[in-house]
Amino acid sequence: MDTISTLSARLDSRDVTAGALLDASLDIIARQDGDIRAFISIMEESARRQAQAADTRAREGQRLGPLDGIPISVKDIVATRDAPTTAGSSILEHHMTGDDAPLIKRLAAAGAVIVGKNNMHEYAFGVSSANRRFGSVINPRAPECIPGGSSGGTAAAIAAGMVPAGIGSDTGGSIRIPAACCDLVGLKPTYGLIDARNTIPQAWSLDHFGPMATCVDDVRLLLQAAMGARLAAGTSQSVLKGLRIGVPRHLVERADAATLAGFLRAMQRLEEYGAVIREFDYADLDEGYRAWLVVMLAESAAYHRGNLRDAPEAIDPAIRPSLLAGICLSGFEYLDAQRYRRQWCARLFDDLRGIDIVANPTLPVAPPLRDVETVQAGSGEMSVLDAMVCYQWVANLSGWPSIALPCERSAGIAPSLMLTARPHAEALLLDTARAFEDIRGQTAGN
After folding, report:
1. Residue 236: what pLDDT?
2. What pLDDT was estimated at residue 201?
3. In the predicted structure, residue 30 carries a pLDDT above the cut 80
4. H/E run at residue 115
């Protein structure tokens, strides 16, 4: 499917209707989703109402903006009035919230046509989007590899051309990991920038919602709709001139040789266009990771304490031990982790004075094969879970915005580049990502 920008221009010129775009989306889903399993629910009836309203506005010359009439999908963790909100679980399989989440209302106000709810790792608690109730999501770009998680269904729907863009959630990389595994662009915005009310939480103080698409411009458009405000866009590669990019040396060295080579090529290209590359190291990485882990496990267990008491057998046995570990944490341990988190983030802010953007690989390895438990990275053998989150958790603990995008054009899955900026610096982050997308030879619409 074309980019949002291309489709929106066609809607502007009346070359195509929103109804026709919806028909095309539903047709691809009908033909492919039996194998890919990107969707849990298809919201055809409400989507047709939205498309008809968009076409009426287009005929009257009153389109709401670039997203008006564009088919998108959302992770099945966001409440919708017209379809169940399952969080990928059998416990919530028929759960109707009775209202749309504020995020859905924002997207509707922009005219988006919400085609359906995407499959995911149960309760957003995993990196492979293996789902025992709704079937494991298949990576359309590399069926032998995981699509990433937990927002794997959203990534798969975009990669398969079912929709041009979608919304995922990210607690420890769950937007950026599937973006990297499916050769897409995925943005985790600043914590709280997108309203998370009326969603199924994994961990309240770590959860972020954000867009995925095939290009940076589409991510920007979907972000603007989701936050209900406009971001100024840079106009050229001049944003790179003098841009101070920090590379966390010891963290980057955890990548395998092929991933590291792709990352270094990306840094060289940025340097050629005027960026200044500086090496640094995060302080106390192990303690920071432990704080993220304690907060995530404790908050997840707090949400699931009723399920663990009343229906533990209904929870995927692969995630149940983590939830039980969270139950065993004391309130003192949780409060200590949150206190250390504040200290760690304050030190991070100080340590990165003089750096505008942090750059590292999104993942330390290529997307792992399905059903493998370990991978070989630059620092030795790692579990798949540890490998997928080892670069991700920093931006969740800090709440800073972070974007993943392909390092280069490739016939397969290219290594992915992750860029992170200070809070509420989404405009700079997206401008930098867009400039890199341009210089690597893959602009929006290609």
Report:
1. 66
2. 97
3. yes
4. strand 113-118
A 10 A CB-CB count for 412 gives 10
Q: For residue 361, which of 290, 414, 292 has the smallest C-alpha distance? A: 414
For residue 210 the two structure tokens come to: 């954000």
Whole-Å CA distances, 347 to 170, 278, 282, 370: 23, 18, 9, 38
Q: Is the pLDDT of residue 60 over 50?
A: yes
- The fraction of the chain above a pLDDT of 70, given in percent, is 98
Q: What is the pLDDT of residues 356-386, one digit of tens each?
A: 999 999 999 999 999 999 999 998 999 999 9
Contact 249, 362 (CB under 8 A): no
Q: Which residues contact 341 (CB under 8 A, 6 or more apart)?
A: 288, 291, 292, 295, 397
Mean pLDDT of the chain: 96
User: Are the CB atoms for 183 and 407 separated by under 8 Å?
Assistant: no
How far apart, in Å, are the Cα atoms of 226 and each of 52, 93, 109, 175, 236?
21, 26, 9, 15, 25
- Interhelix angle 320-328/285-310, rounded to 10 degrees, is 100
The position carrying tokens 């494991």 is 136
pTM: 0.96
Residue 183, classed as helix, strand or coil, is coil
Only one residue has tokens 């920071």, namely 288
436: left (phi over 0), alpha (psi -120 to 50) or beta: alpha
Catalytic residues: 75, 150, 174
Unique residue bearing structure tokens 């897409």? 184
Q: What is the pLDDT of residues 172-193, one digit of tens each?
A: 999 999 999 999 999 999 999 9
Q: What domains are defined for the chain? A: 4-227 (3.90.1300.10), 237-285+339-439 (3.90.1300.10)
Q: Is the pLDDT of residue 234 over 80?
A: no
| Two structure tokens written together for 149 | 């998680």
Contact 235, 136 (CB under 8 A): no
| Pair 387, 254: CB distance under 8 Å | no
